[in-house]
Design brief:
Strand order of the largest sheet: 1-3-6-9-12-14-15
Distance between the termini: 25 Å
Order of helices and strands: EEEEEEEEEEEEEEEHHHH
Family: Belongs to the transferase hexapeptide repeat family.
Low-confidence stretches: none
Protein name: Transferase hexapeptide repeat containing protein
Shape: globular
Structural class: alpha/beta
Keywords: Acyltransferase, Antibiotic resistance, Repeat, Transferase
CATH superfamily of the largest domain: Hexapeptide repeat proteins
Mean pLDDT: 94
Number of domains: 2
GO molecular function, one term: acyltransferase activity
CATH topology of the largest domain: UDP N-Acetylglucosamine Acyltransferase, domain 1
Number of strands: 15
Strand content: 15-25%
Number of helices: 4
Organism: Alkaliphilus metalliredigens (strain QYMF)
């Protein structure tokens, strides 16, 4: 076998603060790609699902995370179940408290719905980032620590702040187009192993272009 075992929860048995979250018990409406890891020094990484908040199966929204993503501790995914009805005079959720107030329980159609939350491949999300419902983050993007992501993020872009704003592109447009066509994260284990130096070096993109 080349490389770590993607089917193991802990790819490195000596590091119990990092796990491949695709190997956690399956959860409805959550899809996670191979080699994507969650790192948490304060609690077991197996608790990753605790960071997916207000995710109710009856709403049907999905959290989809691609391959080879790096997710730091304290990252929170806020799903559509957090939304309150906003077309009335007040947003207060009377219905959840009972006592007759349940007569104004909204239907699913009454509530704001932003769709699925989709994280691309090779995305690095810094610690204590909050990602709001329905956000799409493109392949190769980086989200700075302590950011709140309220709008979609383009591939290979760096965003940061609250609310998170565009900082810069990681590469020029031509290089980004090439990388999106390349989709190295879909290579087999042997091809990734053979190209590790190029994938991780400063001049890797130039060298990789020459070889392909």
């Amino acid at each position: 076998m080349i490389g770590p075992d993607k089917k193991k929860l802990y790819p490195n048995e000596n590091i119990k603060t990092v796990c491949y979250i695709s190997n956690l018990p399956k959860r409805a409406n959550v899809e996670i790609g191979d080699y994507t890891y969650y790192s948490d020094n304060k609690k077991c990484p197996e608790k990753f699902y605790d960071n997916i908040e207000h995710h109710y199966e009856f709403l049907g929204d999905k959290l989809i995370i691609g391959k080879f993503c790096a997710i730091a501790e304290g990252v929170n995914f806020i799903m559509n179940g957090a939304n309150h009805r906003m077309d009335g005079i007040t947003t207060y959720p009377f219905n959840i408290f009972g006592g007759g107030w349940e007569k104004v329980t909204p239907t699913v159609e009454d509530l704001p719905f932003k769709g699925d939350t989709v994280i691309g491949n090779d995305v690095w999300i810094g610690q204590y980032v909050t990602i709001m419902p329905g956000i799409k983050i493109g392949d190769g993007a980086i989200i700075a620590a302590n950011s709140t992501v309220v709008k979609d993020v383009e591939p290979y872009a760096i965003y940061g702040g609250n609310p998170a704003k565009f900082i810069k592109k990681r590469f020029n447009d031509e290089q980004i187009e090439l990388l999106l066509k390349l989709q190295w994260w879909n290579w087999d284990e042997e091809k990734i192993f053979d190209n590790l130096e190029m994938l991780t070096s400063k001049l890797g993109l130039e060298k990789l272009t020459e070889r392909l």
